[in-house]
Structure formats: C-alpha cells, structure tokens
Design a protein that fits this description.
By secondary structure, this protein is of the alpha/beta class. Among the domains are: 80 residues, 2-Layer Sandwich (Gyrase A, domain 2); 74 residues; 173 residues, Orthogonal Bundle (Isoleucyl-tRNA Synthetase, Domain 1). Helices cover 53% and strands 10% of the residues. The protein has 22 helices and 13 strands. A 4-stranded antiparallel β-sheet has the order 1-2-4-3. α7 crosses α10, α12 packs across α13 and α20 runs antiparallel to α21. The longest helix has 25 residues. The protein starts with a helix and ends in a 9-residue tail after the last helix.
C-alpha cells in the first residue's frame, strides 16, 4: 500500500497541493515518533505561519481513517502513527492468499527494449562484461515482473576491421584442430599474435583492412570464415548465459544493420543535418555543447553512431517501445548523448524515450590491467568456475552430507559473483574479491541464500502447527520491523526500475534478511501457544517467499537447503 498517498489524501488544506504534501512526507527516524512525518518548515514562507502552528492546523483539519491510530504535533512536525495490524494484514495478506508467492504486477501493455551484454564476436566473454550482463538481465526480469513486455537485445559486436585482422591471423597461423578444442581461447591467441606481429610488420594492418573489405563485399571465403568465428563465439557464450540465467529475444548485432544505414544517411542529407568536416560526414552538435557526431569516415565507411541510429529507428518500428535502454559503460556517455540528440534533430520525438544506463568498471583483485589485444583477460567462465569450486569446498566443510551439494555449490558460487556485481550502485567501479563474495556472513549473496534456506528449514520443522493468524503478534519490536520491510517489496522494485538500479533490490534483500535473522534469534515458534506460533510461522513463510522472488529478480537461485 502507498501509505504516503493515503496520508496525503487525508490532509485537507486549501493552501497546499497534494503534490507538495507528498513530496514532504517522510518516514520517521525513530518509531517513537510514529511511522510517517510531515515537516512543516518548508511551508512556513508560503503560509506565513510558524511550522508548529501549521502542523496544529493540519492536524485539526485531517480526515479520519482506520489506518491512522493517532497524530501528534512535535515542534514543526506532524507525526502519524499507523494501525499496525492493518499494515501487517496488508503486508502479508496478499502473499498468504496467493499460496505464499508474490504475484507479478498486471500486464500494462508497454514494451521496453533493453540492449545489454553485447559481446564481441571472436573475443572472450571476460569479467568486464559482467556488469552490463547482470544489470541488463536483472532489469529485464524486473520489467517482466512489473507487467511490461521486455525485449532483451544482444547487440553483437560482429562488424569491423578486427574481423579482417582475425582472418589474416587464421589464414597464416590458424589450426582448426586447436580451434575446435579451445574455441574462443584459440581465437584470442590468434588475435593477440596478429597485433604482436603487426608491430614488427605494419603491412599486416593493410591485409586486415583488405579482408574486412572482402567480408563487406560478400566474398565467399571471407564470409565462411567470419560465420565460423560467429558460430564458435555464440556456442561458447551461450554456456555462460545459461549459467547466469540470462536470456535474449534478439541477437541482431552490428552486421544486421548493414542494409539499414543508407536510409538514415539519406534522411540526414534531406534534413540538411549532414555536413563535411575534413572529408568526413558529420552532424554538427556544437550549439548543444558537444563535438560533431561522425556518421561516415573519409572513405565512406560507417561508424558506431551510424549503426546505433539505424538500430534505434529499427527498434522503434519493430517494437514500438515505451523505452529503449542501453546498458553500456559510462565511457560511452558522450556517444549516446550524440546519438539521442541526432535522433531528436531528425524529428523523432521518441528520442526522449531512449535512455543510456551507464555503469562503472569491474576488475578482479590481483588481475592487473586488462587488455584483449595483449591477451591479458580474465574469462568470466573461469571466475564462475572458481566461485563454484570454492563454494563446494565451503559446503564440504560446513555440511558434507548435504543433498545435491554440487547443484547448491553452483547456485551459491554463481549467485555470489552476480550479487557482487549488483550489490553496489551501478555507476561505481568494482574490485571483485571471490573470498569476500563467498562469505556467508555480511552483505553477500550466500548470506541471502542461507537466510532463505533457514526460512525453509523452520517452515519444514513447524509444518504441523495449526492455528489462526493473530496480527497483533506482529505489531511490536523485531516482528514489526520485518513486516514493514515486507510491505516495502513492490515499492522497492518499482523504484529500482524508475532509477534503473538493481542494487536497490539487493540492498532491500539484505535489510530484510538482517531484520528476519534478528527476529528469529529473539522469537520462538515451537513451544508457543498455537495462534502465536502459527502467526510467527506465517511471517517466516512470507519472508521465504519474498526472498525467493527478490533473489530471482537479481538473477540468483534460492536453494532450500544449505
């Protein structure tokens, strides 16, 4: 329930708009002062009254509602004390009525396109791809959960001179048997060798450009090798996506837009937006505080901006999106500002619906500086393998008789890596430590999974308890702290979508788990009177359901036993 809106509707004032009241309402810092407060200081100048007098006047004119137990004026604040039984009933009633699951929100008919992960063909799926993949995948699930038609797009990096270079390397030094055996790793070695050899023999760069031109011109040999690299890459990366629980609805990459760029270039010319600068075709964005947006190089070849313009127009025509999100690192801030501005100048009012969702960089502690050209990369699959192996070691130490411990180790290991990516604000750089990520104590993925498993264990042990729910049991202390958090689940998810910030859900789950564990330590279930025991058991089961749903939204499985 949106309690702020309920309270705002109860406050009658001819001088204050509901929007002003809503903006001012805030949770209290201390529950002794109620559940919600209205600071009246910001209204003093408008109403020409002292804040305490404003608070008193609003209190006198308030409409009554069962939700409000009482209101109090405290200095310049008007404090609201809620009926806790009503809050408890609202928080867990829907979960109970839906057989202890949290139903998704209804379909709203809107489509959201999400461009994320966007791996490069013939290059490794490395640790640097973790954030775009995890953030985009989580937002994809959240949008679906909140009733949107989500379209996940993997905008493959499958075009450019690097493919010509790789063909040269393959023809000179390639070993089909080695490629068959080592796949991407073999292709990476060829790519690294090309650049090492090109430093000694710069003519190789010309050969690379030649073979890419052959791809562009439809040369059968060039295309056959190119598609071979593409098939190898997609086969390998699909294994990583499966481990992460990531899905896509489209793999339309850069090459897909080859025949869709000329109409864009023609439209730019017709609208008088295209100018020549030092031989290149550009859109001048100086008046908007940006450098020119390059559309065509001197030799007439396209650039990233050309393809992104074509892609945006295609996506709008194909999906008629409500929003189109680009989950791409913050280093591309200027690029997307330019692209969106050019779309706007072309007359597309939906350009405002295109959103860049930037994020920081991720590195692995002790890995040093990463470079694909030099071969210094950390494969994401290797990181996941290490996390799973370490998880299995921990399980063998703590609970060697656990059933299906290999599967649990996979869930915990992969979950630890994903949570590490989604636990902090997305714009922050992350230095990733496996040891810290795999800790069962502290703010980690395994801690959340263990708390969920604890809930499952309690529910199993107490499954024979019968009784009826007495909501008054949940109205004090640690129990009510859990209730308030349960009530905040849907608003948190919606807020996370509004800010494109999955870490808000991660933070919420940590808060819920910590509150529950505090409740668990101080509250008995077995041995209590029937209604008390049953009510507390109900709270446990609703926490279990909420943790499971929330973990799913951030791409983490929830084992029932650990």
């Amino acid at each position: 329930m949106d309690y702020k809106s309920v309270v705002a509707n109860l406050i009658k004032s001819d001088e204050l708009d509901k929007s002003e009241i809503l903006a001012a309402l805030a949770p209290t810092q201390d529950e002794k002062n109620g559940d919600l407060c209205l600071p009246c200081f910001k209204f003093a100048a408008k109403l020409h009254m002292a804040p305490p007098a404003i608070a008193g006047k609003l209190k006198e004119n308030m409409l009554s509602d069962p939700l409000i137990d009482k209101t109090e004026v405290a200095g310049g604040y008007l404090n609201f004390y809620f009926n806790r039984e009503i809050i408890a009933k609202n928080a867990i009633g829907a979960i109970i009525n839906n057989n202890y699951t949290l139903p998704p929100l209804a379909d709203n008919g809107k489509t959201v396109c999400l461009d994320y992960s966007s791996i490069n063909i013939a290059k490794p799926f490395h640790i640097g791809h973790l954030l775009t993949t995890a953030i985009g995948g989580s937002l994809y699930r959240m949008y679906k959960y909140c009733g949107y038609n989500a379209v996940g797009i993997n905008h493959l990096g499958d075009w450019g001179t690097q493919f010509g270079k790789l063909i040269v390397a393959y023809k000179k030094w390639g070993d089909d048997e080695d490629i068959e055996k080592r796949n991407i790793r073999a292709l990476l070695d060829l790519y690294v060798r090309f650049h090492a050899e090109a430093e000694k023999n710069p003519e190789l760069e010309d050969e690379g450009r030649y073979w890419f031109k052959q791809i562009e011109d439809g040369n059968e040999e060039a295309l056959a090798i190119f598609h071979k690299f593409k098939d190898i890459t997609l086969k390998e990366v699909s294994k990583v996506y499966d481990r992460l629980g990531i899905t896509f609805d489209s793999y339309a990459g850069e090459s897909f837009y080859n025949d869709k760029m000329q109409p864009v270039i023609d439209a730019l010319k017709e609208k008088g937006l295209l100018t020549i600068s030092e031989g290149a075709s550009v859109v001048d964005l100086e008046k908007y505080g940006m450098p020119p947006c390059l559309i065509l190089k001197k030799d007439g070849t396209s650039l990233y901006a050309t393809r992104d313009l074509a892609a945006a127009i295609y996506r709008k025509k194909t999906y008629d999106f409500y929003k189109c999100l680009y989950v791409v690192a913050y280093q591309q801030n200027l690029h997307f500002k330019q692209v969106f501005k050019v779309l706007e100048l072309m007359g597309y009012d939906w350009a405002k619906d295109c959103v860049h969702v930037p994020f920081g960089m991720v590195s692995l502690e002790g890995a040093g500086s990463l470079s694909t050209r030099k071969g210094n990369v950390v494969f994401l699959s290797d990181v996941l393998d290490s996390a799973v192996n370490k998880s299995l070691e921990i399980i063998n130490e703590k609970n060697p008789d656990l059933e299906n411990k290999e599967k649990t180790a996979r869930d915990v290991g992969v979950g630890a890596v994903v949570f590490g990516a989604l636990s902090g604000g997305r714009i922050k750089d992350i230095s990733f430590s496996l040891d810290k990520a795999l800790s069962f104590d502290g703010e980690t993925g395994p801690y959340l999974q263990y708390t969920h498993a604890r809930c499952c264990s309690i529910a199993e042990k107490a499954k024979d308890i019968k009784g009826k729910i007495d909501y008054s049991v949940l109205c004090d202390g640690d129990a009510f702290a859990v209730v308030k958090l349960l009530d905040a689940f849907y608003p948190t998810v919606l807020n996370a979508l509004d800010k494109y910030e999955p870490s808000m859900v991660s933070r919420y789950l940590i808060d819920l788990a910590q509150a529950f564990n505090k409740f668990y330590v101080g509250s008995r279930i077995l041995g209590e009177a029937d209604d008390v025991a049953f009510t507390r058991l109900t709270l446990v089961k609703t926490v279990e359901a909420t943790l499971k749903t929330g973990l799913n939204l951030i791409l983490i499985n929830a084992p029932e036993k650990m």
